[in-house]
Structure formats: structure tokens, C-alpha cells
Amino acid sequence: MADNNNKLILALDVSEYDYAIELIDKFSSYVDIFKVGLELYSVAGTQIIKEIHKRGKKVFLDLKFHDIPNTVSKAGLAVARQGVFMFNVHASGGLDMMKKCRDDVVNTCLKENLDRPRILAVTVLTSISKEVLRDEVGISHSLNTHVKHLSGLALKAGLDGVVASAHEAAKIRSHCGRGFLVVTPGIRTSWTPVDDQMRTMTPKQALREGADYLVMGRAILGQPDPVKAIEKINKEIADA
Ligand code: C5P
User: Fold this and answer.
1) Among 79-83, 116-120, 124-128, 218-222, whose mean pLDDT is lowest?
2) What is the rounded distance in angstroms from the CA atom of residue 59 to the CA atom of residue 110?
3) CATH code that applies to domain 4-239
4) pTM listed for this prediction
5) Whether pLDDT at 239 is above 50
6) Which residue CA neighbors atom 4 of ligand 1 most closely?
7) Closest CA relative to residue 183, chosen from 208, 211, 152
8) What are 145-165's pLDDT values in tens digits?
9) Residue 188 half-sphere exposure, CB side, CA atoms within 13 Å?
10) Which of 35, 57, 58, 64 is catalytic?
């Protein structure tokens, strides 16, 4: 099992390159994996990935690819060649999209002797409530059933795991097996606000539900003393 540092993924949801570097340096002794999402990637691109790697840390590239199979596969190859540890696609892009991306990345990594990134599928965003899924997205079955369905599809496509709410972690684990990664955003401590997240859980609860990795952003970076917050969270993770 991963040590504490490995279970926590810090979301670098900032839009200034220099500030991102400052955060990476400040938190490197607490975190092994930094998440680069749409906001930071849009301003700092591949350079920020290189900087994280230079410091011996890993990258979860959270760009949530959702396009036709050929485009997603090509994007997957491009990020695999940058050496990211993890990246993700939307499961709702369908089986062919996920499978082509996975197969092309696996084959290319073998051919080019690259470390193969873990490929995850986003199931239902943690900011989506059951009402929004039903009334706006138009999914008539329950949120749980939908997450289970999309997780099963990701497994069938050969992906390594899913990004999902910790509320669904136990169900995904029993449906998809022990080796299937469950990465959970929407993590909030008892002392932080939920912001725009709808399906939140504390770090301790999420790990008990079977999460492998916890993605945390605002509950750390939005605190008056983020270092103190991360120390407290790491203690909670160790206790779990
Ligand atoms: O600040 P907070 O901890 O809510 O940040 C959660 C991070 O996880 C954000 O970067 C968000 O884009 C990402 N994420 C999410 N829900 C998903 C997938 C990724 O909140 N299903």
C-alpha cells in the first residue's frame, strides 16, 4: 500500500506559472503527485509537467479527454510521451474511445520503451448532484447505477481505474475488483467549506470506503495556513 504522501494528490488549480512552482516547492515534502488540470495547463502547458518531473515528483494530468476515438488516442499518446503518471478521459465518451486510447498508449509505450501512464475514466463529476444528472443531463436511472455502469465500461476498455466520488468508491470496488484504481476528488475536512462540490467526504471516510488516492485542492490551498492543513490531513490519512 502507498505511504501517506502517495495517497494524497494536490490539485494545482492556479493560473500563474510562478505561483504553481512556489506551491510545488512548498509541498514537495508532503505530496508525491501533483494534479495539473485545465486551468494550469492552459497557461503553463508542458513546461509545468517538466518542472514537476525535475523535482522527482509525479503528474496526474487531469484534462478529461472527451472526443472522437482517434483524437483522444492521439492526445493520450502525446501525454504518455511527456511521462505523466496518470491521465484521464470521460467514460461517457464510450467504449471505443476508451479502448482505442488505452490500446494505442499501451502499444506505443512498449514500442518506445516508455513508462505506461495509468489511464482513468471520469464517471460522474463530483459537482453533479443526482437531480442535475436526472433533470439536466437526462440520465433516467439513478446516479449510483450510472456510476456503476460507466465504471464497468472503463474496466471493459482495459482502463486502470476511475475518478469518482468517495460515496461510490465501495460500490465501484465490489463491481470492478481490487486492482481497479478509485481516485476520489470532492474531499473535504470537517473544518472546510464544500464550495461547488456536491458529493463530498472526509479523507478518513473516503479511505475507509476504498479510495486509493484522494484529490484535494481548495481544502488545502484555500486555508489560511495550507502547510498546517496538509499536516493535519496527513495525520487523518495515517489514522485511517
Ligand atoms: O478544490 P477541490 O478539492 O474541490 O478540487 C477538486 C479537483 O478535482 C479539481 O481540480 C477538479 O477539477 C477535480 N475533479 C473533480 N471531480 C471529478 C474529476 C476531477 O472535482 N470528477
Assistant:
1) 124-128
2) 20
3) 3.20.20.70
4) 0.94
5) yes
6) 186
7) 211
8) 999 999 999 999 999 999 999
9) 17
10) 64
